[in-house]
Design goal:
heterodimer; A: about 110 residues; mainly beta; six-stranded mixed sheet; 11 strands; B: about 110 residues; seven-stranded mixed sheet; four-stranded antiparallel sheet
């Protein structure tokens, strides 16, 4: 089992819809969770960090964390064509370790 | 805003050459990382450094070395470039291991 799993997609949604991106992780002691957006040929850029169970909202983005189910998700409301990119989920274990584990990403396509 | 600067966006080198990839961050971060990213394989950690002159091997250190003589600068060295080192190389930094990684723009290296 991979340490961080994401559906590779592509996930296609119409403009204005909600895009839902999911990520599961295997290590129960993971403490820190991050979502990155990566456009083709570019480097990852941080969208959100989440550290505790529940929802965290930032503009059109909402991250959801459920540590009991080892599941973290990203919702993008009012999706725009400019949101078309690959979204990477990253997980870090408890402090003291260097291990940031990345999923291979979900490709999102927002159709105009 | 954190700024992580990689010296080259694109590099083309010949097999057997010694290659230096430079990375500088301006936020006085303790921790710096080198990843490579390949299609279908995601981000793989090559080396990381948690302090000046301190380094730890990541998951794929073979064929690479690193240097951190100053806190702001972390260099990746390909001792004798090979075609299987053709990849996107990403440098990242973070203040502490619970915080997100901040990535540079990446260097796309082609070894011919």
């Amino acid at each position: 089992q991979k340490e961080v799993e994401q559906n590779s997609g592509p996930l296609s949604v119409p403009e204005g819809a909600i895009a839902s991106l999911n990520c599961t992780y295997s290590d129960r002691v993971s403490q820190s969770f991050f979502w990155y957006r990566q456009y083709s040929g570019k480097s990852p850029e941080l969208i959100m960090s989440i550290y505790s169970n529940g929802d965290k909202e930032d503009g059109r983005f909402t991250a959801q964390l459920n540590k009991a189910s080892q599941y973290v998700s990203l919702l993008i409301r009012d999706s725009q064509p400019s949101d078309s990119a690959t979204y990477l989920c990253a997980v870090n274990m408890a402090s003291g370790t260097y291990k940031y584990i990345f999923g291979t990403g979900t490709r999102l396509k927002v159709l105009a | 805003d954190v700024k992580v600067t990689q010296s080259s966006r694109y590099l083309v080198k010949r097999t057997g050459e010694k290659v230096f990839l430079e990375c500088v961050q301006d936020m006085d971060h303790e921790n710096m990382f080198w990843y490579r990213q390949d299609p279908g394989l995601g981000l793989r950690l090559i080396y990381f450094s948690y302090d000046v002159k301190m380094k730890e091997k990541g998951d794929i250190p073979e064929g690479y070395s690193v240097s951190r003589e100053k806190k702001e600068r972390f260099s990746l060295i390909l001792e004798s470039a090979s075609t299987n080192q053709t990849s996107m190389y990403l440098c990242a930094s973070t203040a502490d291991m619970n915080s997100p990684l901040h990535f540079g723009n990446g260097t796309r290296l082609t070894v011919t």
